[in-house]
């Protein structure tokens, strides 16, 4: 038999084991403690990552609560601007299931719920013009749905452990990870040619039910807030797709809305506030007549546009796109008041 | 479950604790077997049945081959084992590829056949464990070994979780004898095992995932021609990524097994310091290359049937080795290039057999760098999505692309090449040494600092866990 395949005993280096392990452990613990303290000094607190696992936890609730519950989908605005506790209190129901995902289109989520026979509830779809029409295939939303379908037992269990650790240690926050800090945020010289993008900064704090609010630094640190605005500005390029593609997407959305409606569910689109340069870009590239109005016409679904309701205006959006923490509760209360007639009419329809 | 996941940390802690309980050896082996099935089922529970099928078929077939008296009977039984194992592999791994290429051939001869794209889940580790069970049956058939006496030992050999899903592909006589008597890791083995686990995780989490993957992904995903510097930075990044990812996994597997008291063979021996391609394949994925040598190359005749036949045998072995990695023509081209370079090396050895410069230090270094450069060229086909992307990348690497567009940021032009210089330098220094010898020469406090630094970097880089590249094979 060739020697490379013979049984053997692995040689072990002769080392003073106890001293080596002890020193390594002391150094590791000291290094991690220092890292944790430095992040806490910066203002970071333990926070849950907006990952597929956290999303899947909420998505699973549809199986038991999808019959009569309220679900929120959309991008980051509906994630940040709606306070789930205030909603529950003002609507007099259980808190909605928060399935919005930042930085992506909600269309794959709408399609997913349309295909799920368990879902016959009240669906509120956040409409952000710059993200709503982006390609669904390959989007974060599509990946989250795929993860939910294919989640292995190991991944699910690992997520439970990960949540437990993230709830205690600030440095496990995704924005504190070594890789992006070294390879993205460090002041490397800018090379002319490749498109350099600013990384989306830490913007939020999240609970296990994905109730999310703006991180305090965005509100209190002017330089940080200005950086956040610069991050958005780098994406102020033309959108949405041409009219033909837009109509095709509206048609697909209408199909999904109709499937939910046919089962006794209801879909309402909500355009949440934006201000200043962000709102200007949205109005320039995706005016109401071209996007919002056509969406409602294609789907025959009701829509709530913040511009049409004075109670949904006048709030503070530090980086032009999301409400500050203190404004979430009053905004949510106002939104619930506007939605209540629709919600009640849906509750009263025969099933 | 992934080695770089919290689930595995907890799983391993439980397994280690159970393995060190004062219970009988048979019970411990049964525990390890159950743990291994749990490990595999954590991905996709129904696919445990395939693992079980492979185990049962080869155990039974090998026993019958050993008892069979006539050659025809033995051959038929071998064919049964080959049929089941390779059939399962063919269906799950190559089913889509076969359908797609059959349709393409049909189209070229005027038959309009557009089959639905099969949606077949690739069971994790199938390429590894089927080769492992086949080795057992083939050894019995070739009368290199007798069938085992304990089904428990054999089942544990097949499913042993440290090496189940991405190797090393272990031979029966490397592992089964270790199951015959009780083993428990000494404190030195435990320490060294955890050290290897840390090293492997550092290679995977910090080097491969954090520092190298972006440059590789950006360049291979660019879809456009790029400057020479971008192309080479991307290819070097991938060569580092695949090494650190795969060698990292093997190192973790060896460390985990060692913590349980078992020794797995080396799977990598500083391959980027290889002098020529024969040497490369004695250092890269050693368990696969020796498997192909023992069960394909040598049975085909090896180098015993004349020069031309040797070259043919080499090419066939490497082409199939390429195909083993994935159902794609680019993998076959990767394998074919290695076959070509192996043949060219044989020719070159005859031509330069008297050349003294080859044995000098600068000469060997030059050959090491030449081998490394050519290996990088072959990696283009391994990584590229298709031939068009491979062609664009190669043209970019050699300045033949015409109009180009810069892809990488400054940090991705600097960090991956620096890491690769460090890796190649380490490989050159270590090529005739072993890591345990090197570690013995370093002061203990420096070992402790390096260990703590690697662990710190792993913990502060790690998200919830990324899959290893070789899980797709």
Q: What does this 3D model show about the protein?
A:
The complex is a heterodimer of chains A (351) and B (473). In chain A, helix 2 packs across helix 8, helix 5 packs across helix 16 (325-348) and helix 6 runs parallel beside helix 13. Chain A has 16 helices and seven strands. The termini of chain A are far apart. Chain A has helices spanning 17-42, 52-60, 62-65, 76-81, 84-91, 107-114, 129-132, 140-150, 153-166, 178-185, 216-220, 222-233, 243-262, 276-285, 292-299, 325-348, and strands at 70-73, 97-98, 122-126, 204-206, 212-214, 266-271, 303-305. With 351 residues, chain A is α/β, with parallel strands linked by helices. In chain A, the strands form two sheets. Chain A has a five-stranded parallel sheet with strand order 2-1-3-6-7, with helices on both faces. Chain A has a two-stranded antiparallel ribbon with strand order 4-5. The two termini of chain B are 16 Å apart. Chain B is globular. Chain B has 473 residues and is mostly helical. Chain B contains 18 helices and no strands. At the A-B interface, helix 1, helix 9 and helix 10 of A face helix 1, helix 7, helix 8, helix 11 and helix 16 of B.
């Amino acid at each position: 038999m060739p020697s490379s395949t013979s049984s053997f005993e692995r040689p072990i280096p002769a080392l003073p084991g106890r001293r080596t392990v002890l020193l390594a452990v002391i150094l590791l613990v000291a290094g991690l403690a220092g890292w944790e303290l430095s992040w806490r000094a910066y203002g970071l607190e333990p926070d849950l990552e907006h990952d597929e696992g956290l999303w899947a936890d909420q998505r699973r609730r549809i199986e038991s609560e999808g019959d009569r519950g309220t679900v929120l989908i959309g991008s980051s605005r509906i994630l940040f601007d709606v306070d789930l506790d205030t909603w529950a209190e003002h609507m007099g129901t259980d808190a909605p299931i928060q399935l919005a995902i930042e930085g992506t289109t909600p269309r794959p989520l709408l399609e997913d719920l349309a295909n799920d026979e368990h879902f016959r509830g009240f669906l509120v779809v956040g409409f952000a013009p710059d993200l709503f029409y982006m390609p669904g295939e390959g989007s974060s939303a599509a990946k989250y749905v795929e993860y939910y379908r294919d989640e292995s037992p190991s991944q699910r269990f690992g997520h439970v452990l990960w949540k437990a650790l993230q709830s205690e240690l600030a440095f496990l926050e995704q924005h504190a990870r070594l890789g992006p800090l070294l390879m993205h945020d460090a002041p490397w010289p800018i090379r002319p040619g490749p498109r350099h993008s600013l990384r989306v900064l830490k913007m939020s704090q999240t609970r296990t039910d994905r109730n999310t609010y703006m991180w305090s630094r965005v509100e209190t640190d002017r330089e940080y807030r200005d950086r956040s605005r610069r991050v958005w500005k780098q994406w102020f390029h033309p959108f949405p797709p041409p009219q033909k593609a837009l109509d095709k997407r509206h048609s697909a959305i209408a199909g999904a809305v109709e499937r939910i409606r046919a089962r006794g569910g209801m879909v309402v689109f909500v355009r949440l506030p934006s201000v200043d340069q962000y709102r200007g870009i949205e109005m320039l590239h995706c005016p109401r007549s071209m996007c919002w109005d056509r969406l409602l016409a294609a789907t025959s679904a009701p829509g709530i546009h913040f511009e049409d309701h004075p109670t949904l205006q006048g709030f503070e959006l530090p980086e032009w796109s999301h409400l500050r923490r203190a404004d979430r509760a009053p905004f949510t209360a106002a939104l619930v008041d506007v939605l209540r007639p629709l919600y009640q009419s849906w509750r009263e329809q025969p099933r | 479950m992934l080695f770089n996941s919290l689930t595995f940390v907890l799983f391993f802690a439980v397994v280690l604790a159970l393995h060190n309980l004062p219970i009988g050896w048979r019970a411990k082996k049964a525990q390890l077997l159950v743990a291994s099935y749990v490990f595999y089922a954590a991905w996709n529970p129904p696919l445990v049945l395939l693992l079980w099928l492979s185990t049962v078929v080869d155990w039974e077939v090998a026993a019958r081959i050993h008892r069979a008296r006539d050659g025809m009977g033995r051959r038929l039984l071998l064919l049964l084992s080959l049929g089941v194992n390779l059939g399962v592999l063919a269906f799950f791994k190559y089913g889509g590829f076969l359908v797609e290429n059959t349709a393409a051939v049909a189209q070229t001869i005027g038959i309009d056949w557009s089959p639905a794209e099969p949606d077949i889940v690739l069971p994790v580790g199938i390429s590894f464990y089927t080769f492992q069970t086949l080795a057992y049956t083939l050894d019995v058939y070739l009368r290199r070994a007798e069938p085992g006496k304990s089904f428990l030992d054999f089942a544990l050999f097949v499913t042993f979780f440290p090496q189940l899903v991405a190797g090393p592909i272990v031979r029966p006589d490397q592992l089964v004898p270790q199951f015959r008597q009780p083993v428990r890791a000494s404190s030195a083995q435990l320490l060294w095992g955890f050290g290897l686990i840390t090293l492997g995780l550092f290679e995977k989490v910090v080097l491969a995932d954090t520092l190298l993957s972006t440059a590789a992904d950006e360049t291979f995903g660019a879809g456009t021609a790029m400057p020479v510097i971008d192309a080479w930075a991307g290819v070097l990044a991938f060569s580092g990524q695949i090494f650190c990812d795969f060698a990292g996994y093997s190192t973790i597997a060896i460390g985990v097994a060692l913590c349980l008291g078992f020794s797995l063979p080396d799977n990598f021996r500083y391959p980027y310091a290889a002098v020529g391609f024969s040497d490369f394949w004695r250092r890269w994925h050693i368990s696969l290359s020796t498997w192909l040598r023992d069960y394909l190359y040598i049975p085909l005749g090896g180098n015993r049937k004349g020069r031309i036949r040797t070259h043919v045998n080499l090419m066939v072995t490497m082409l199939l080795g390429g195909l083993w990695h994935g159902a794609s023509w680019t993998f076959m081209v990767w394998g074919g290039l290695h076959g070509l370079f192996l043949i060219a090396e044989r020719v070159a050895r005859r031509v330069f057999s008297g050349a003294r410069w080859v044995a000098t230090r600068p000469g060997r270094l030059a050959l090491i760098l030449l081998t490394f450069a050519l290996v990088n060229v072959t990696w283009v086909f391994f990584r590229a999505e298709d031939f068009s992307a491979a062609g664009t990348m190669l043209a970019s690497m050699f300045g033949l692309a015409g109009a180009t567009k810069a892809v990488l940021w400054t940090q991705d032009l600097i960090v991956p090449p620096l890491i690769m210089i460090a890796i190649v330098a380490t490989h050159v220094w270590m090529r005739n040494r072993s890591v345990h010898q090197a570690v013995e020469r370093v002061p203990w406090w420096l070992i402790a600092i390096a260990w703590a630094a690697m662990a710190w970097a792993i913990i502060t880089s790690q998200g919830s866990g990324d899959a290893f590249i070789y899980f797709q094979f």
